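Sample entry follows:

_____
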Amino acid sequence: MSDYHKQIHTLFSDDSFPPMIIFSGKWGAGKTYYVTEHLIEDLKNVYSYNVTYISTMGISSLDDFKDLIVSKRYLEKKHDSNGVSKLIELFGSIEKNSLGNNAITSVLKGSTGAIKHYMLKNISNELFIIDDIERIEDCKLKKNIIGECLRLTENNNKFLFVTVDDELKLDKSFTEKVFSDSIIFSLNSFDIFSIFKPKFVHLTDSQNHIEEFINKHELYNLRVLNRTFKRLEALLKYVNELEDVNYELLKGKIINDGLHISKMYYIENRTVNEIISTDEDKKEKIKLKIRGSLTLNELFVRYIIGRHLSVTDVFNVDELPKKKSLLDTLLFEQPFSLSDSEFIRGVSELKYYILTEINVEIRKFFECCFYHEYLVDNSYIPKDESIIFDTIRILADQKTFINYRSNRSLSISNPKYKDIADEYIEKLDIETAGKEISDLYESLQVSFKRSMLYMGNNYKTRPILNKFTVTQWKSLIKGWTFNEIGYFSDYLFGRYRTFSHTYNFSEEKETLEKLLNFVKLELANQPVSPKKGTLNRLEKALYFSFNKLDTDNV
Protein backbone atom coordinates (compact mmCIF):
# COMPACT_ATOMS: atom_id res chain seq x y z
CA MET A 1 0.00 0.00 0.00
CA SER A 2 1.12 3.56 -0.63
CA ASP A 3 2.82 4.85 2.52
CA TYR A 4 1.10 8.21 2.63
CA HIS A 5 2.08 8.77 6.25
CA LYS A 6 5.77 8.44 5.25
CA GLN A 7 5.39 10.94 2.41
CA ILE A 8 3.63 13.39 4.72
CA HIS A 9 6.26 13.04 7.45
CA THR A 10 9.07 13.52 4.95
CA LEU A 11 7.55 16.76 3.69
CA PHE A 12 6.89 18.03 7.21
CA SER A 13 10.50 17.27 8.13
CA ASP A 14 11.82 19.52 5.37
CA ASP A 15 11.96 22.97 6.98
CA SER A 16 12.78 24.68 3.67
CA PHE A 17 9.03 24.72 2.91
CA PRO A 18 5.99 25.73 4.98
CA PRO A 19 4.53 22.67 6.78
CA MET A 20 1.37 22.95 4.67
CA ILE A 21 0.45 20.02 2.42
CA ILE A 22 -2.44 19.33 0.04
CA PHE A 23 -3.77 15.76 0.21
CA SER A 24 -5.80 15.59 -2.99
CA GLY A 25 -8.01 13.00 -4.63
CA LYS A 26 -11.09 12.68 -6.80
CA TRP A 27 -14.63 13.13 -5.51
CA GLY A 28 -15.83 9.88 -3.98
CA ALA A 29 -12.36 8.34 -3.82
CA GLY A 30 -12.70 7.82 -0.08
CA LYS A 31 -10.16 10.42 1.10
CA THR A 32 -12.03 11.34 4.26
CA TYR A 33 -12.68 7.71 5.14
CA TYR A 34 -9.02 6.82 4.60
CA VAL A 35 -7.83 9.82 6.62
CA THR A 36 -10.16 9.32 9.60
CA GLU A 37 -10.00 5.52 9.71
CA HIS A 38 -6.32 4.89 8.82
CA LEU A 39 -4.03 7.85 8.16
CA ILE A 40 -4.62 9.60 11.51
CA GLU A 41 -3.74 6.42 13.41
CA ASP A 42 -0.57 5.96 11.34
CA LEU A 43 0.52 9.54 11.99
CA LYS A 44 -0.17 9.19 15.71
CA ASN A 45 1.34 5.77 16.23
CA VAL A 46 4.35 5.91 13.90
CA TYR A 47 5.40 9.54 14.35
CA SER A 48 3.63 10.55 17.60
CA TYR A 49 1.90 13.57 16.08
CA ASN A 50 -0.85 15.31 18.04
CA VAL A 51 -3.51 15.15 15.33
CA THR A 52 -6.70 17.20 15.21
CA TYR A 53 -9.25 16.63 12.43
CA ILE A 54 -11.39 19.61 11.39
CA SER A 55 -14.09 19.80 8.73
CA THR A 56 -14.81 23.30 7.40
CA MET A 57 -18.35 22.35 6.38
CA GLY A 58 -20.63 25.21 7.46
CA ILE A 59 -17.81 27.73 8.05
CA SER A 60 -18.94 31.21 6.95
CA SER A 61 -16.24 33.48 8.37
CA LEU A 62 -12.65 33.50 9.53
CA ASP A 63 -13.86 33.94 13.12
CA ASP A 64 -15.88 30.72 12.76
CA PHE A 65 -12.70 28.93 11.73
CA LYS A 66 -10.70 30.39 14.61
CA ASP A 67 -13.41 29.40 17.08
CA LEU A 68 -13.33 25.88 15.67
CA ILE A 69 -9.55 25.65 16.05
CA VAL A 70 -9.67 26.95 19.62
CA SER A 71 -12.56 24.74 20.69
CA LYS A 72 -10.92 21.64 19.24
CA ARG A 73 -7.68 22.54 21.04
CA TYR A 74 -9.03 23.44 24.47
CA LEU A 75 -12.36 21.61 24.73
CA GLU A 76 -12.12 18.31 22.93
CA LYS A 77 -8.46 17.38 23.23
CA LYS A 78 -7.74 18.53 26.82
CA HIS A 79 -4.04 19.08 26.21
CA ASP A 80 -1.27 20.08 28.62
CA SER A 81 -2.11 21.71 31.92
CA ASN A 82 0.33 24.53 31.18
CA GLY A 83 -1.91 25.95 28.47
CA VAL A 84 -4.95 25.74 30.73
CA SER A 85 -3.01 27.39 33.58
CA LYS A 86 -2.18 30.34 31.35
CA LEU A 87 -5.84 30.66 30.47
CA ILE A 88 -6.69 30.68 34.17
CA GLU A 89 -4.20 33.47 34.77
CA LEU A 90 -5.64 35.44 31.88
CA PHE A 91 -9.23 35.00 32.99
CA GLY A 92 -8.73 35.92 36.63
CA SER A 93 -12.45 36.06 37.24
CA ILE A 94 -12.74 32.31 36.78
CA GLU A 95 -12.10 30.18 39.84
CA LYS A 96 -9.45 27.52 39.26
CA ASN A 97 -11.51 24.81 40.87
CA SER A 98 -14.53 25.56 38.71
CA LEU A 99 -12.69 25.68 35.41
CA GLY A 100 -14.06 23.07 33.06
CA ASN A 101 -15.63 22.64 29.65
CA ASN A 102 -18.63 24.81 30.53
CA ALA A 103 -16.46 27.66 31.81
CA ILE A 104 -14.15 27.54 28.82
CA THR A 105 -17.15 27.37 26.50
CA SER A 106 -18.49 30.55 28.08
CA VAL A 107 -15.12 32.21 27.54
CA LEU A 108 -15.02 31.09 23.92
CA LYS A 109 -18.46 32.47 23.19
CA GLY A 110 -17.47 35.90 24.46
CA SER A 111 -13.84 35.92 23.44
CA THR A 112 -12.69 38.42 20.85
CA GLY A 113 -9.56 40.24 19.84
CA ALA A 114 -6.64 39.77 22.23
CA ILE A 115 -8.24 36.89 24.10
CA LYS A 116 -8.79 34.74 21.02
CA HIS A 117 -5.38 35.72 19.70
CA TYR A 118 -3.83 34.57 22.97
CA MET A 119 -5.65 31.26 22.76
CA LEU A 120 -4.45 30.68 19.21
CA LYS A 121 -0.92 31.75 20.10
CA ASN A 122 -0.71 29.04 22.74
CA ILE A 123 -1.46 26.28 20.24
CA SER A 124 1.78 24.62 19.21
CA ASN A 125 3.21 21.31 17.98
CA GLU A 126 -0.12 20.27 16.48
CA LEU A 127 -0.94 18.58 13.20
CA PHE A 128 -4.30 19.87 11.97
CA ILE A 129 -6.07 17.98 9.19
CA ILE A 130 -8.38 20.42 7.41
CA ASP A 131 -11.12 18.76 5.33
CA ASP A 132 -13.75 20.07 2.87
CA ILE A 133 -12.21 23.52 2.29
CA GLU A 134 -13.03 23.26 -1.41
CA ARG A 135 -16.73 23.32 -0.47
CA ILE A 136 -16.42 26.92 0.71
CA GLU A 137 -17.59 29.04 -2.21
CA ASP A 138 -16.04 32.33 -1.08
CA CYS A 139 -12.47 32.33 -2.47
CA LYS A 140 -11.48 35.23 -0.22
CA LEU A 141 -12.57 33.26 2.86
CA LYS A 142 -10.64 30.21 1.66
CA LYS A 143 -7.52 32.35 1.28
CA ASN A 144 -8.03 33.89 4.72
CA ILE A 145 -8.36 30.45 6.33
CA ILE A 146 -5.26 29.16 4.57
CA GLY A 147 -3.44 32.36 5.54
CA GLU A 148 -4.42 31.89 9.20
CA CYS A 149 -3.10 28.33 9.06
CA LEU A 150 0.16 29.59 7.56
CA ARG A 151 0.48 32.08 10.43
CA LEU A 152 -0.08 29.28 12.96
CA THR A 153 2.82 27.29 11.45
CA GLU A 154 5.13 29.86 13.05
CA ASN A 155 4.49 28.04 16.33
CA ASN A 156 5.51 24.65 14.92
CA ASN A 157 1.99 23.65 13.86
CA LYS A 158 1.47 21.64 10.70
CA PHE A 159 -1.49 21.49 8.33
CA LEU A 160 -2.70 18.81 5.94
CA PHE A 161 -5.55 19.94 3.65
CA VAL A 162 -7.74 17.06 2.47
CA THR A 163 -9.34 18.38 -0.69
CA VAL A 164 -9.93 18.08 -4.42
CA ASP A 165 -7.06 20.09 -5.85
CA ASP A 166 -8.93 21.16 -8.98
CA GLU A 167 -11.92 22.31 -6.93
CA LEU A 168 -9.97 24.72 -4.72
CA LYS A 169 -10.25 27.34 -7.47
CA LEU A 170 -7.39 29.42 -6.10
CA ASP A 171 -4.64 31.16 -8.05
CA LYS A 172 -1.72 28.88 -8.74
CA SER A 173 0.65 31.62 -7.61
CA PHE A 174 -1.09 31.63 -4.21
CA THR A 175 -1.09 27.86 -3.68
CA GLU A 176 2.56 27.52 -4.75
CA LYS A 177 3.51 30.13 -2.18
CA VAL A 178 1.71 28.60 0.83
CA PHE A 179 1.82 24.85 0.20
CA SER A 180 4.99 22.81 0.20
CA ASP A 181 3.59 20.10 -2.08
CA SER A 182 0.56 18.05 -3.13
CA ILE A 183 0.15 14.36 -2.44
CA ILE A 184 -2.27 12.59 -4.77
CA PHE A 185 -4.47 10.02 -3.04
CA SER A 186 -5.21 7.01 -5.20
CA LEU A 187 -5.48 3.41 -4.05
CA ASN A 188 -5.45 0.38 -6.32
CA SER A 189 -7.69 -2.60 -5.72
CA PHE A 190 -5.02 -4.49 -3.77
CA ASP A 191 -4.49 -1.52 -1.45
CA ILE A 192 -8.22 -1.19 -0.91
CA PHE A 193 -8.72 -4.84 -0.05
CA SER A 194 -5.68 -4.78 2.25
CA ILE A 195 -7.36 -2.04 4.28
CA PHE A 196 -10.49 -4.09 4.86
CA LYS A 197 -9.04 -7.61 4.88
CA PRO A 198 -8.49 -7.94 8.65
CA LYS A 199 -12.14 -7.08 9.40
CA PHE A 200 -13.93 -9.34 6.93
CA VAL A 201 -12.83 -12.96 7.24
CA HIS A 202 -15.59 -14.37 5.02
CA LEU A 203 -14.40 -12.21 2.12
CA THR A 204 -10.70 -13.07 2.41
CA ASP A 205 -10.64 -16.04 0.02
CA SER A 206 -12.59 -14.01 -2.56
CA GLN A 207 -9.94 -11.28 -2.80
CA ASN A 208 -9.13 -11.87 -6.47
CA HIS A 209 -12.80 -11.85 -7.40
CA ILE A 210 -13.45 -8.65 -5.45
CA GLU A 211 -10.38 -6.89 -6.85
CA GLU A 212 -11.46 -7.85 -10.36
CA PHE A 213 -14.88 -6.31 -9.74
CA ILE A 214 -13.40 -3.12 -8.23
CA ASN A 215 -11.14 -2.62 -11.23
CA LYS A 216 -13.70 -3.53 -13.85
CA HIS A 217 -16.38 -1.22 -12.44
CA GLU A 218 -14.01 1.43 -11.01
CA LEU A 219 -15.61 1.09 -7.58
CA TYR A 220 -12.85 2.72 -5.52
CA ASN A 221 -15.01 4.55 -2.99
CA LEU A 222 -13.80 3.32 0.41
CA ARG A 223 -16.87 4.42 2.32
CA VAL A 224 -19.22 2.62 -0.07
CA LEU A 225 -17.04 -0.50 -0.04
CA ASN A 226 -16.85 -0.52 3.75
CA ARG A 227 -20.66 -0.33 4.04
CA THR A 228 -21.08 -3.06 1.46
CA PHE A 229 -18.41 -5.35 2.91
CA LYS A 230 -19.99 -5.10 6.38
CA ARG A 231 -23.34 -6.27 5.05
CA LEU A 232 -21.83 -8.97 2.86
CA GLU A 233 -19.72 -10.26 5.76
CA ALA A 234 -22.76 -10.57 8.03
CA LEU A 235 -24.86 -12.24 5.34
CA LEU A 236 -22.12 -14.70 4.34
CA LYS A 237 -21.56 -15.63 7.98
CA TYR A 238 -25.27 -16.38 8.34
CA VAL A 239 -25.50 -18.42 5.13
CA ASN A 240 -22.33 -20.34 5.97
CA GLU A 241 -23.92 -21.50 9.22
CA LEU A 242 -26.96 -22.96 7.43
CA GLU A 243 -26.22 -26.65 7.57
CA ASP A 244 -27.71 -27.92 4.29
CA VAL A 245 -27.11 -24.87 2.09
CA ASN A 246 -24.47 -24.94 -0.66
CA TYR A 247 -22.48 -21.98 0.66
CA GLU A 248 -19.70 -22.16 -1.93
CA LEU A 249 -22.22 -22.01 -4.75
CA LEU A 250 -23.94 -18.94 -3.30
CA LYS A 251 -20.91 -17.04 -2.07
CA GLY A 252 -19.69 -15.65 -5.39
CA LYS A 253 -23.18 -14.58 -6.41
CA ILE A 254 -23.81 -12.81 -3.10
CA ILE A 255 -20.52 -10.90 -3.33
CA ASN A 256 -20.77 -10.04 -7.01
CA ASP A 257 -24.40 -8.93 -6.97
CA GLY A 258 -23.94 -7.12 -3.64
CA LEU A 259 -21.13 -5.02 -5.10
CA HIS A 260 -23.12 -4.48 -8.27
CA ILE A 261 -26.11 -3.21 -6.29
CA SER A 262 -23.91 -0.84 -4.27
CA LYS A 263 -22.44 0.60 -7.43
CA MET A 264 -25.89 1.20 -8.91
CA TYR A 265 -27.29 2.70 -5.70
CA TYR A 266 -24.40 4.77 -4.32
CA ILE A 267 -22.48 5.69 -7.48
CA GLU A 268 -25.14 5.71 -10.20
CA ASN A 269 -27.89 6.97 -7.83
CA ARG A 270 -30.46 4.42 -8.97
CA THR A 271 -33.55 3.77 -6.87
CA VAL A 272 -34.53 0.33 -5.58
CA ASN A 273 -37.20 0.03 -8.28
CA GLU A 274 -34.67 0.95 -10.97
CA ILE A 275 -32.23 -1.65 -9.65
CA ILE A 276 -34.71 -4.52 -9.69
CA SER A 277 -36.24 -3.52 -13.03
CA THR A 278 -35.33 -5.79 -15.89
CA ASP A 279 -33.08 -3.89 -18.27
CA GLU A 280 -31.41 -5.52 -21.27
CA ASP A 281 -28.39 -6.66 -19.30
CA LYS A 282 -30.52 -8.37 -16.67
CA LYS A 283 -32.72 -9.99 -19.33
CA GLU A 284 -29.65 -11.71 -20.67
CA LYS A 285 -28.66 -12.84 -17.19
CA ILE A 286 -32.10 -14.31 -16.58
CA LYS A 287 -31.99 -16.15 -19.88
CA LEU A 288 -28.73 -17.76 -18.82
CA LYS A 289 -29.64 -18.55 -15.20
CA ILE A 290 -33.15 -18.55 -13.81
CA ARG A 291 -32.09 -17.70 -10.27
CA GLY A 292 -28.74 -16.27 -11.27
CA SER A 293 -29.17 -12.57 -10.53
CA LEU A 294 -29.80 -11.63 -6.90
CA THR A 295 -30.39 -8.07 -8.09
CA LEU A 296 -33.92 -9.29 -8.83
CA ASN A 297 -34.47 -10.20 -5.17
CA GLU A 298 -35.87 -7.00 -3.64
CA LEU A 299 -35.14 -8.04 -0.06
CA PHE A 300 -31.50 -8.66 -0.99
CA VAL A 301 -31.30 -5.26 -2.68
CA ARG A 302 -32.80 -3.50 0.33
CA TYR A 303 -30.46 -5.33 2.69
CA ILE A 304 -27.35 -4.35 0.72
CA ILE A 305 -28.27 -0.65 0.68
CA GLY A 306 -29.13 -0.69 4.37
CA ARG A 307 -32.92 -0.56 4.14
CA HIS A 308 -33.46 -4.05 5.53
CA LEU A 309 -31.30 -4.93 8.49
CA SER A 310 -31.89 -8.55 9.50
CA VAL A 311 -29.76 -11.15 7.73
CA THR A 312 -32.27 -13.86 8.61
CA ASP A 313 -34.96 -12.27 6.44
CA VAL A 314 -32.96 -11.70 3.25
CA PHE A 315 -33.43 -15.21 1.87
CA ASN A 316 -35.97 -17.94 2.38
CA VAL A 317 -33.84 -20.91 3.36
CA ASP A 318 -36.06 -23.30 1.39
CA GLU A 319 -35.18 -21.59 -1.89
CA LEU A 320 -31.40 -21.68 -1.41
CA PRO A 321 -29.40 -24.39 -3.23
CA LYS A 322 -28.73 -27.51 -1.19
CA LYS A 323 -25.28 -29.10 -0.86
CA LYS A 324 -26.19 -32.50 -2.27
CA SER A 325 -28.60 -31.36 -4.98
CA LEU A 326 -27.15 -31.33 -8.48
CA LEU A 327 -30.53 -30.01 -9.63
CA ASP A 328 -30.00 -26.89 -7.54
CA THR A 329 -26.45 -26.60 -8.85
CA LEU A 330 -27.80 -26.78 -12.38
CA LEU A 331 -30.39 -24.08 -11.68
CA PHE A 332 -27.96 -21.72 -9.95
CA GLU A 333 -24.99 -22.15 -12.28
CA GLN A 334 -24.44 -21.63 -15.96
CA PRO A 335 -24.16 -24.92 -17.85
CA PHE A 336 -20.62 -24.30 -19.11
CA SER A 337 -19.31 -23.95 -15.52
CA LEU A 338 -20.22 -27.58 -14.72
CA SER A 339 -18.22 -30.71 -15.44
CA ASP A 340 -19.65 -33.25 -17.91
CA SER A 341 -20.74 -35.59 -15.12
CA GLU A 342 -22.28 -32.76 -13.07
CA PHE A 343 -24.23 -31.55 -16.07
CA ILE A 344 -25.52 -35.02 -17.03
CA ARG A 345 -26.57 -35.86 -13.46
CA GLY A 346 -28.10 -32.42 -13.03
CA VAL A 347 -30.24 -32.82 -16.15
CA SER A 348 -31.28 -36.28 -14.93
CA GLU A 349 -32.46 -34.77 -11.63
CA LEU A 350 -34.19 -31.96 -13.55
CA LYS A 351 -36.25 -34.44 -15.58
CA TYR A 352 -37.03 -36.57 -12.55
CA TYR A 353 -38.31 -33.49 -10.68
CA ILE A 354 -40.56 -32.54 -13.60
CA LEU A 355 -41.85 -35.98 -14.53
CA THR A 356 -41.69 -38.21 -11.43
CA GLU A 357 -41.40 -36.28 -8.17
CA ILE A 358 -44.84 -35.84 -6.59
CA ASN A 359 -44.24 -33.38 -3.74
CA VAL A 360 -42.67 -30.34 -5.41
CA GLU A 361 -42.28 -26.63 -4.69
CA ILE A 362 -44.70 -24.89 -7.00
CA ARG A 363 -42.51 -22.10 -8.33
CA LYS A 364 -39.46 -24.32 -8.56
CA PHE A 365 -41.46 -26.80 -10.64
CA PHE A 366 -42.31 -24.19 -13.26
CA GLU A 367 -38.75 -22.88 -13.19
CA CYS A 368 -37.52 -26.37 -13.97
CA CYS A 369 -39.95 -26.65 -16.88
CA PHE A 370 -38.80 -23.29 -18.23
CA TYR A 371 -35.13 -24.17 -17.75
CA HIS A 372 -35.57 -27.49 -19.55
CA GLU A 373 -36.99 -25.57 -22.51
CA TYR A 374 -34.01 -23.19 -22.36
CA LEU A 375 -31.55 -26.10 -22.48
CA VAL A 376 -33.40 -27.62 -25.45
CA ASP A 377 -33.63 -24.32 -27.35
CA ASN A 378 -29.89 -23.74 -26.92
CA SER A 379 -28.96 -27.29 -27.98
CA TYR A 380 -27.60 -28.40 -24.61
CA ILE A 381 -29.97 -31.39 -24.56
CA PRO A 382 -32.27 -33.07 -27.10
CA LYS A 383 -35.97 -32.33 -27.16
CA ASP A 384 -38.20 -34.48 -24.95
CA GLU A 385 -41.82 -34.54 -26.09
CA SER A 386 -43.00 -35.39 -22.58
CA ILE A 387 -41.61 -32.06 -21.30
CA ILE A 388 -42.88 -29.31 -23.55
CA PHE A 389 -45.06 -26.34 -22.75
CA ASP A 390 -48.20 -28.06 -24.05
CA THR A 391 -47.79 -30.81 -21.43
CA ILE A 392 -47.15 -28.51 -18.45
CA ARG A 393 -50.76 -28.42 -17.19
CA ILE A 394 -51.02 -32.21 -17.39
CA LEU A 395 -47.82 -32.57 -15.37
CA ALA A 396 -48.80 -29.83 -12.89
CA ASP A 397 -52.16 -31.46 -12.17
CA GLN A 398 -50.33 -34.58 -11.03
CA LYS A 399 -48.28 -32.72 -8.43
CA THR A 400 -48.77 -32.01 -4.74
CA PHE A 401 -47.40 -28.52 -4.38
CA ILE A 402 -45.57 -27.56 -1.18
CA ASN A 403 -43.66 -24.58 0.25
CA TYR A 404 -45.10 -22.29 -2.39
CA ARG A 405 -45.09 -19.23 -0.11
CA SER A 406 -41.37 -19.47 0.64
CA ASN A 407 -40.55 -19.41 -3.06
CA ARG A 408 -42.44 -16.29 -4.08
CA SER A 409 -39.31 -14.16 -4.38
CA LEU A 410 -37.95 -16.35 -7.18
CA SER A 411 -38.31 -14.89 -10.64
CA ILE A 412 -39.67 -16.64 -13.72
CA SER A 413 -38.77 -14.32 -16.57
CA ASN A 414 -40.58 -16.11 -19.39
CA PRO A 415 -44.12 -14.63 -19.52
CA LYS A 416 -45.93 -17.81 -20.52
CA TYR A 417 -44.37 -19.85 -17.71
CA LYS A 418 -44.88 -17.04 -15.24
CA ASP A 419 -48.56 -16.71 -16.13
CA ILE A 420 -49.29 -20.40 -15.70
CA ALA A 421 -47.31 -20.51 -12.44
CA ASP A 422 -49.28 -17.54 -11.10
CA GLU A 423 -52.51 -19.28 -12.06
CA TYR A 424 -51.63 -22.38 -10.03
CA ILE A 425 -50.37 -20.29 -7.10
CA GLU A 426 -53.63 -18.34 -7.01
CA LYS A 427 -55.61 -21.57 -7.07
CA LEU A 428 -53.55 -22.96 -4.21
CA ASP A 429 -53.98 -19.71 -2.31
CA ILE A 430 -57.73 -20.02 -2.44
CA GLU A 431 -57.64 -23.63 -1.28
CA THR A 432 -55.30 -23.08 1.66
CA ALA A 433 -55.77 -19.47 2.79
CA GLY A 434 -59.15 -20.04 4.41
CA LYS A 435 -57.95 -22.89 6.60
CA GLU A 436 -54.73 -21.10 7.50
CA ILE A 437 -56.53 -17.95 8.67
CA SER A 438 -59.16 -19.99 10.49
CA ASP A 439 -56.51 -21.99 12.38
CA LEU A 440 -54.56 -18.85 13.22
CA TYR A 441 -57.66 -17.08 14.54
CA GLU A 442 -58.55 -20.04 16.73
CA SER A 443 -55.04 -19.98 18.24
CA LEU A 444 -55.37 -16.22 18.90
CA GLN A 445 -58.65 -16.80 20.72
CA VAL A 446 -56.89 -19.19 23.10
CA SER A 447 -53.83 -16.99 23.71
CA PHE A 448 -51.93 -14.33 21.80
CA LYS A 449 -48.67 -15.22 23.53
CA ARG A 450 -48.90 -18.88 22.45
CA SER A 451 -50.27 -18.23 18.96
CA MET A 452 -48.26 -18.74 15.76
CA LEU A 453 -48.58 -15.03 15.08
CA TYR A 454 -46.43 -14.34 18.14
CA MET A 455 -44.22 -17.43 18.30
CA GLY A 456 -43.74 -18.41 14.65
CA ASN A 457 -41.73 -16.97 11.75
CA ASN A 458 -44.29 -17.38 8.98
CA TYR A 459 -45.80 -13.91 9.40
CA LYS A 460 -42.75 -11.77 10.11
CA THR A 461 -42.36 -10.58 6.54
CA ARG A 462 -45.87 -10.68 5.10
CA PRO A 463 -49.09 -8.80 5.89
CA ILE A 464 -51.49 -10.84 8.00
CA LEU A 465 -53.32 -8.52 10.42
CA ASN A 466 -55.57 -7.36 7.58
CA LYS A 467 -56.73 -10.93 6.93
CA PHE A 468 -59.01 -10.69 9.95
CA THR A 469 -62.04 -8.41 10.06
CA VAL A 470 -62.15 -5.52 12.50
CA THR A 471 -65.03 -7.31 14.23
CA GLN A 472 -62.78 -10.33 14.80
CA TRP A 473 -60.02 -8.13 16.24
CA LYS A 474 -62.50 -6.38 18.54
CA SER A 475 -63.66 -9.76 19.81
CA LEU A 476 -60.09 -10.86 20.44
CA ILE A 477 -59.14 -7.71 22.33
CA LYS A 478 -62.27 -7.85 24.47
CA GLY A 479 -61.64 -11.51 25.27
CA TRP A 480 -57.93 -11.23 26.07
CA THR A 481 -56.62 -10.75 29.59
CA PHE A 482 -54.56 -7.64 30.25
CA ASN A 483 -51.43 -9.84 29.96
CA GLU A 484 -52.33 -10.90 26.41
CA ILE A 485 -53.07 -7.30 25.44
CA GLY A 486 -49.63 -6.32 26.76
CA TYR A 487 -47.90 -8.96 24.63
CA PHE A 488 -49.90 -7.84 21.60
CA SER A 489 -48.76 -4.24 22.23
CA ASP A 490 -45.11 -5.26 22.40
CA TYR A 491 -45.56 -7.29 19.22
CA LEU A 492 -46.85 -4.22 17.37
CA PHE A 493 -44.00 -2.04 18.61
CA GLY A 494 -41.50 -4.52 17.22
CA ARG A 495 -43.30 -5.50 14.01
CA TYR A 496 -42.73 -2.25 12.11
CA ARG A 497 -39.60 -0.88 13.74
CA THR A 498 -36.83 -2.09 11.44
CA PHE A 499 -38.40 -3.85 8.47
CA SER A 500 -39.26 -2.40 5.07
CA HIS A 501 -42.51 -1.04 6.47
CA THR A 502 -44.28 0.62 3.55
CA TYR A 503 -43.04 -1.96 1.10
CA ASN A 504 -44.21 -5.02 2.97
CA PHE A 505 -46.94 -4.10 5.42
CA SER A 506 -48.92 -1.28 3.80
CA GLU A 507 -51.98 -3.55 3.51
CA GLU A 508 -52.25 -3.59 7.32
CA LYS A 509 -52.54 0.19 7.62
CA GLU A 510 -56.33 0.44 7.36
CA THR A 511 -56.84 -2.33 9.94
CA LEU A 512 -54.51 -0.58 12.39
CA GLU A 513 -56.37 2.70 11.99
CA LYS A 514 -59.74 1.11 12.71
CA LEU A 515 -58.35 -0.74 15.72
CA LEU A 516 -56.87 2.50 17.04
CA ASN A 517 -60.28 4.18 16.91
CA PHE A 518 -61.86 1.18 18.63
CA VAL A 519 -59.31 1.15 21.46
CA LYS A 520 -59.81 4.87 22.05
CA LEU A 521 -63.54 4.24 22.62
CA GLU A 522 -62.82 1.27 24.88
CA LEU A 523 -60.50 3.38 27.02
CA ALA A 524 -63.22 5.98 27.55
CA ASN A 525 -65.54 3.32 29.01
CA GLN A 526 -63.00 1.39 31.11
CA PRO A 527 -62.56 1.90 34.86
CA VAL A 528 -59.03 2.24 36.22
CA SER A 529 -57.59 -1.28 36.18
CA PRO A 530 -54.64 -3.31 34.84
CA LYS A 531 -56.65 -3.89 31.65
CA LYS A 532 -57.14 -0.15 31.14
CA GLY A 533 -53.40 0.31 31.65
CA THR A 534 -52.56 -2.23 28.96
CA LEU A 535 -55.25 -0.81 26.65
CA ASN A 536 -53.53 2.54 27.08
CA ARG A 537 -50.28 0.88 26.01
CA LEU A 538 -52.06 -0.78 23.08
CA GLU A 539 -53.33 2.63 21.95
CA LYS A 540 -49.73 3.89 21.89
CA ALA A 541 -48.59 0.78 20.00
CA LEU A 542 -51.33 1.15 17.39
CA TYR A 543 -50.60 4.85 16.99
CA PHE A 544 -46.88 4.10 16.59
CA SER A 545 -47.57 1.35 14.04
CA PHE A 546 -50.06 3.33 11.99
CA ASN A 547 -47.77 6.35 11.98
CA LYS A 548 -44.88 4.18 10.78
CA LEU A 549 -46.85 2.86 7.83
CA ASP A 550 -48.27 6.30 7.11
CA THR A 551 -45.00 8.22 7.03
CA ASP A 552 -42.15 5.76 6.44
CA ASN A 553 -40.81 6.23 2.90
CA VAL A 554 -38.71 3.13 2.60
About this structure: The longest helix spans residues 415-446. Residues 462-551 form one domain. Confidence is low (pLDDT under 50) at residues 92-101, 280-290, 405-410.
